Every structure is written in C-alpha cells, then in structure tokens.
C-alpha cells in the first residue's frame, strides 16, 4: 500500500495525518523536534512552576474546521465556551471599561442597544465591517477604514491585529472579509470565543496524538527533514538529519512545515519571506484571578498589552505584530505589560509578580498584501508533493482555522492521488472508526 509521509507535527500536520488515517491511508508522521504542536503548544515553565502556553490562542465557535477537529479528536469539551459572545474591554488610556455583547442570532439586534455596543459608537458605525467585502488585493486595513472612524481603535484595529498579526497600516484588508463572514456574518453564536481549558496541548495536541495512535500513527520525533531528493517531477526520497527514507512508487509527501522551512526545502517555491512576532508575558499572581463577569479573557486597547487570558493564578498578556517589543529587553517588556495588567485587574503595581516573557519572533508570516500574494497552493510542481500550513493559500489568515483547513485540503488531494477518492473528509459517517 502506498504511504503518505507527513512532515511536521504542528496542527497542519496533525490534521493532515488524522484525515488521511481516518480514511484508511497508510501514514507516517515525522517531526523535527521532540514534541508535537509546533506554534500551538503548552509546556511546564520552571520559573513560574506552572503549565503555560507558548501564547494565548482564541478560536471562534463558528470556526468549522476547528470544531470538526476538536470533535473528531474527542476534545470538544476541552474548550471554555462562555455561552455567549461577550467581549470585555479595558481602555488603558482612559480607564474606561465596557463589554461588547452580541445577541446569538444572525440579525444583529445588539447593535441597536447602547449597553451592548462600544461606548461612543452608533449602530450605523458597525456597517463599516461591510466595506471589507470590496477590499482590493492591494488594500491595507487603513485603506478600508480610516484611523478617525469611531470603531477604528476600539474594534477594527484590535480585531485585525489579533487575527492578522500585522499592524493595521500594513495588513491585507482582504483577508479579514472571510473572517467577518464566518463570525459576525453568522451572528453572535458563531462569535463565541473559545479558549483552551487547561492548555493548548491538552485541547489541540494530546487528544490528536491519542486519536492518531488509535489509527496506528505514531509521530517519529527527532526527524528533521534536511532535503528532498527530487527526481524529474516527483519526490524520490526524504533526507532526514538521522537518515534517508526512500519513497516507494505511489508514495507521496505532505510538507506541513512553516513558510521559511518550506522555501528552504523546495527550490524555487513561491512562499512568503517575512514574519511578524507575537510576545506573551505570563505573570503568576498570589491568588487565582478571572476576568470581568468570570470570563477568561479581557481585551485591552490603547496600551501595550492587547489581550489578557486568565487561567488559575496565571494571567497572560499578548501583543501581536510585536516586532519592536520582541527586540526589547525581557524585563522591560515584562514591566510594560505588567503596568497594563495591574491596572486592568485592579492589582497593586508593586511588586511585579514572578513573570516569564515568551517571544515568538516568527509567530506567523507577515500578512501584508505583498506577502499574501506569495502564498502557495496545496499542489506543487511535483506530482507527489503537497503543502499544508497556515502560510499556504487557504484564503484565510494564518490562524488555527486556516491551518486546520489547509490540512483538510492537503489530505483530500493526497487521498485522490493515492486513489482513495476525494471524499469530503468531514463526513464522519464514512470514517473508518
Ligand atoms: C504566540 C502565538 C499566538 C497565536 N494566537 C493565535 C490565536 O489566538 N488564534 C489562532 O487561530 N491562531 C493563533 N496563532 C497561530 C497558530 O498558532 C498557527 O497558525 C498554527 O499553530 C500553525 O500551525 P502549522 O502546523 O501550520 O505550523 P507549526 O505549528 O509551525 O508546525 C510546523 C511543525 O513542523 C516542524 N518542522 C519544522 N521544520 C521541520 C523539518 N525540517 N523537519 C521536520 N519537522 C519540521 C516544527 O517543529 C513544527 O512542529 C498564534 C501563533 C502564535 C505563535
């Protein structure tokens, strides 16, 4: 039986392997590091003596691929679902607090209730979201919504920077439209924010590994792919740091590595070259703390910190599009973030509690119009090589949802190549298990 060789055990590789194995394909999964999860994982931090995530991750309830993945790995109950789309905000410049509270249905009644809206805005202001539908490929967020718009600093910018990990002045406006359609466009129920209950690995990685093990797929860790042996129009062998794997006729490869690594491995590949950083600051407080109304997060505008996530006695502050901050001294970063956190949660500023700053310098590719134009399709010039990952051309931003869809698409095309049919893979009834 021909084998699908999946390289990279981040969420793209895990989902590709899962979808292939569910359909009965023979799968081998290789991972260069010692663990799965890639940019979406948890680990024990000795400084805080706590399990922490590499960074705060939020998905929307309306993210279909995320829901399918969580359901199929048996982890749907491992996300905190607040039951409504309530987004608490703190304005670090003015000290104002409010909660944007969407109604569940598709008709946005919430926009007509001032108590549910962002202060200083009218219902008509929210129509600005529709402008993204007509965004040109070259438009940036600020070409579509000007800084002076009442929603710019309090909704458009925080939303765009969180989703695109790129400053609004340079981020590709067109990428935001599918997110608006699948969140606001579906009503408040689809906008419910879901956050990993215990940690990212507990929700997204460990259950996937357990499901893969049931299907007979065990990742081969420490297998760092150094090069692909190319023979005319196909891949003939995989050269890992620890040995070569010759491919049998009919075998295929799904490369689920980040954009820069893919460009290194495939000569002449069209791929984004630039990245943007995300910085997270974890603080261990003397007692457990939660956000307003018991919610597990809080958005901050006009500060350094952008989102706070609360888990037990650890509060984590995230900054996206954080390249300048990522080059700063870690203690300075911690101090700046803690100033915002302390004010947001009404905690004394001194002393600063135990902290850990995590800088992910290559958190995602830079989602500017020029870099978005460099995304690659799933199919390559090689007949038995497919691509997956958040940087591939999914039409969606580089998020968990886009990543998981890239894995579904790669698996679907790989199954067709393996002769096992291009069956829509989310039909669980036809699954092997
Ligand atoms: C701090 C941070 C916060 C984020 N917040 C959010 C959020 O709130 N919501 C959201 O939806 N998304 C968020 N994201 C984005 C999301 O995490 C990524 O889009 C997603 O995890 C990318 O998965 P991937 O599988 O494409 O890539 P990766 O996770 O990078 O996986 C690639 C895997 O390939 C392995 N690999 C690399 N090179 C080789 C090689 N040569 N040989 C073998 N293996 C190799 C790597 O070790 C890795 O395990 C965030 C990302 C970061 C970093």
**DSSP helix fraction:** 10-25%
Characterize the main sheet. 7 strands, mixed
- Strand % is 15-25%
**Inertia-based shape:** globular
Q: Kindly report the average pLDDT value.
A: 95
Q: Strands of the largest sheet, in order across it?
A: 8-7-15-16-17-14-18
Structural class: alpha+beta
Number of strand segments = 19
Q: Give the helix tally.
A: 11
- Return the string of H and E elements: EHEEEEHEEEHHHEHEEEEHEEEEHHEHEH
Bound small molecules, by name, code or SMILES, are: flavin-adenine dinucleotide
Query: How far apart are the termini?
Result: 19 Å
Report on the architecture of this protein:
It contains 11 helices and 19 strands. The protein has helices at 11-22, 64-72, 141-144, 152-164, 176-182, 200-214, 259-265, 323-326, 330-344, 369-372, 400-417; strands at 3-7, 26-30, 42-45, 50-53, 59-60, 79-80, 85-91, 97-102, 193-196, 225-231, 234-240, 243-246, 252-255, 275-284, 297-301, 307-311, 314-319, 355-365, 385-387. The protein has a 7-stranded mixed sheet with strand order 8-7-15-16-17-14-18, with helices on both faces. A 4-stranded parallel sheet has the order 2-1-13-19, covered by helices on one side. The chain is globular and about 65 Å long. Bound molecules: flavin-adenine dinucleotide. Flavin-adenine dinucleotide is lined by residues 7-13, 30-33, 38-40, 54-59, 223-225, 256-258, 261, 278, 280, 360, 363-364, 389-390, 398-401, 403.
């Amino acid at each position: 039986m021909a084998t699908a060789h999946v390289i990279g055990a981040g969420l793209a590789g895990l989902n590709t392997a899962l979808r292939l194995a569910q359909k009965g394909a023979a799968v081998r999964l290789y991972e260069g590091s010692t663990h799965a999860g890639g940019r979406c994982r948890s680990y024990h931090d000795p400084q805080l003596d706590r399990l922490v995530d590499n960074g705060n991750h939020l998905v929307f309830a309306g993210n279909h691929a995320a829901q399918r993945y969580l359901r199929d790995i048996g982890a749907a109950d491992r996300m905190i679902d607040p039951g409504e789309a309530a987004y608490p905000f703190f304005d670090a410049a003015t000290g104002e607090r409010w909660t944007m509270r969407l109604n569940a249905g598709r008709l946005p009644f919430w926009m007509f209730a001032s108590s549910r809206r962002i202060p200083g805005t009218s219902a008509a202001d929210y129509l600005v979201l529709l402008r993204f539908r007509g965004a040109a490929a070259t438009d940036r967020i600020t070409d579509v919504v000007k800084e002076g718009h009442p929603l710019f600093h309090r909704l458009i910018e925080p939303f765009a920077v969180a989703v695109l990990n790129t400053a609004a002045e340079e981020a590709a406006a067109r990428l935001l439209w599918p997110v608006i359609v699948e969140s606001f466009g579906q009503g408040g129920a689809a906008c419910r924010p879901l956050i990993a209950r215990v940690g990212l690995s507990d929700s997204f990685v460990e259950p996937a590994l357990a499901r893969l093990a049931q299907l007979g797929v065990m990742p081969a860790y420490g297998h760092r792919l150094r090069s692909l042996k190319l023979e005319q129009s196909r891949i003939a062998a995989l050269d890992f740091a620890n040995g070569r794997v010759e491919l049998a006729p009919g075998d295929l490869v799904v490369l689920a590595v980040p954009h820069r690594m893919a460009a290194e491995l495939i000569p002449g590949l069209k791929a984004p070259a630039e990245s943007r950083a995300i910085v997270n600051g974890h603080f261990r407080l003397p007692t457990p703390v939660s956000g307003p109304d018991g919610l597990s997060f809080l958005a901050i505008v006009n500060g350094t910190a952008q989102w706070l996530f609360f888990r037990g006695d650890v509060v984590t502050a995230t900054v996206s599009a954080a390249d300048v901050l990522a080059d700063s001294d870690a203690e300075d970063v911690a101090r700046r973030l803690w100033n915002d956190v302390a004010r947001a949660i009404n905690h004394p500023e001194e002393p600063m509690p135990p902290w850990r700053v995590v800088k992910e310098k290559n958190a995602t590719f830079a989602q500017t119009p020029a870099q978005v134009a460099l995304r690659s399709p799933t199919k390559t010039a090689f007949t038995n090589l497919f691509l997956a990952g958040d940087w591939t051309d999914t039409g969606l931003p580089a998020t968990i949802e886009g990543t998981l869809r890239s894995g579904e698409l790669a698996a679907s095309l790989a199954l067709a190549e393996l002769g096992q049919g291009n069956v829509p893979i989310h039909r669980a009834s036809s699954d092997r298990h």
